[in-house]
Structures are given as C-alpha cells and as structure tokens.
Amino acid sequence: MIDSLVLFFSMDFVLYALAAGISLALVAGPLGSFIVWRRMSYFGDTLAHSALLGIALGLLTDSNPQLSIIISCLLFAFLLTLLDRKPSISTDTLLGILAHSSLALGVVVLALADTVRVDLEAYLFGALLTIGNTDLIWVLAVVSLVAVVLFSFWNDFVSITVHAEIAEIEGANVNRLNLILVLLIALTIAVSMKIVGVLLITSLLIIPPAAARSIATTPEQMAVRASIIGCISVGLGLVSAFYYDVPVGPSIVVIATLIFLGFYFYPSVLKTRR
C-alpha cells in the first residue's frame, strides 16, 4: 500500500494537482474566513455560477478559458458590489437571480454552439488531476497576487468586518476595501474551477474556516487553521480518490466535511466527559 502511494505521488500530474490544490487552500482559508464572518456564502455561489458563463464565452471566442473565467468572475463581482450598495430588492433575492440565471445562460450558450464540445462535468465537479503546467502557472500567479494583497490589507479587512461604521469613522474607505475583498474572492473562485468545480467551489471556501472556528480564539488563528485544514483536505482527498477510484473534487469536499463534523462535535464530547 505504501509503495503504491509513493508511486502515485511521484507522478508529475499528481504533483501538479497537489501543488495547485495546496496553494489554493492556503489562500482559501483566510478568504473563506471573511466569507463565514460576513455570511457571504450565497455571494460566493453567485460568483462560482457566473464562472460557467465565462467558460462558454471563452470557448466561443476561441480565447484562453482561464482568462475568460477570471474576467467573467471579476465583472460579476464588480456588478454585485454595485448592486448591493443600492438594492431595489433584497440582497439574497438579487444573488439568487444572478446565480441561477448566469449558470443557465452559460449552459445554454454552450448547447447552442454546435462546433464547441466541452466536458461540463469537469467544470461542474472539478478535474484536479488534469491540471497541466500552464494551469499550474495560472493558479500560482493568482494565488500569489491574492496572498500579497490579503496580507497587506488584513487589518483593514478585519476592521470593516468587525464594525464597518467604526472603521469608517477612523478613516477607512469601506466601499473600496469591500470591493478589493470581493475581487480577491472572485479571483480565487476563478482559478478554483479545475480543482473542485463550479458546484463545489464555495464549499472549499466555507467548510475549512467553519471547522477552524471551533478551535480558534482569534481571527488570525482561524485563518491559519482554516488553511491547514484545507491543505489536509486536498491531500487526503487525492489519496481517497486514488484508493477508491472516485472524483477528486468531491472527495476533497467530503474530507473537509468530515473534519468539520469532527471539530463541531468535539466540544460536545468534552462537555459530556466532564
């Protein structure tokens, strides 16, 4: 068993997958923490669904799919931020409309393009083991950018999350910081397509931070531990996919969910023993 596992992780495509998955998990932890704190999970779903429209437009225009996904996510993130400032209807209703309409429009555009054939399952549920050299470069470049910006504005992001009004009184540009944070989430979602897919992206952003929340006492602890849980989920997800011959993306999410459940019920077990 150990020999086969060593052989598995010595293959180039597995190393690419591991590098992409772990690098994404490192930034998904802190970003996902903000999503959990600010209750933005539906916002993340909307951006994830809009990514499929970016795929469709990229394939139809014969452009780089990864670039078209990034552009689509950034545009939707900017649009959602503008609409959220002066909503004529409730935010959750607006997000629901945009999420499902963008997903449906992307599927329809792909279906109408007879000359374009694409494996939708790979985009919906991820295809981590198909990541190549170019894909890995995209992931590492975007993750590095997100990490630098996130580190630079960390204290500001925490301030506007804890109490936006006080942060604004102290001189913080709340609208600009909110836009930067949303764009970082959009970039992360855009490069996550190949790892867990459109339908599971938000899970990778939410479940590790939710698990870390039970074992953290400060924002920084929660962010770091969420990243660690995400990395563990990626590694064990790859191993599970290898041994049980199941899709990698869903396996990663299942492992993360099991870790969340373990930490969620752990305090209850301690109380019962006491």
Radius of gyration: 19 Å
**What is the CATH superfamily?**
ABC transporter involved in vitamin B12 uptake, BtuC
Cα shape: globular
CATH top level is: Mainly Alpha
What does this structure look like?
The protein is mostly helical. It has a single domain, classed as ABC transporter involved in vitamin B12 uptake, BtuC. Helix content is 82%, strand content 0%. The protein has helices at residues 2-9, 12-37, 41-60, 65-85, 91-112, 120-125, 133-152, 154-162, 164-169, 174-191, 193-196, 201-213, 219-244, 248-273. Helix 3 crosses helix 10 (174-191) and helix 13 crosses helix 14. The longest helix has 26 residues, at 12-37. Mean pLDDT is 79; it is low at 269-274.
Quick structural gist:
This protein is mainly alpha-helical and 274 residues long.
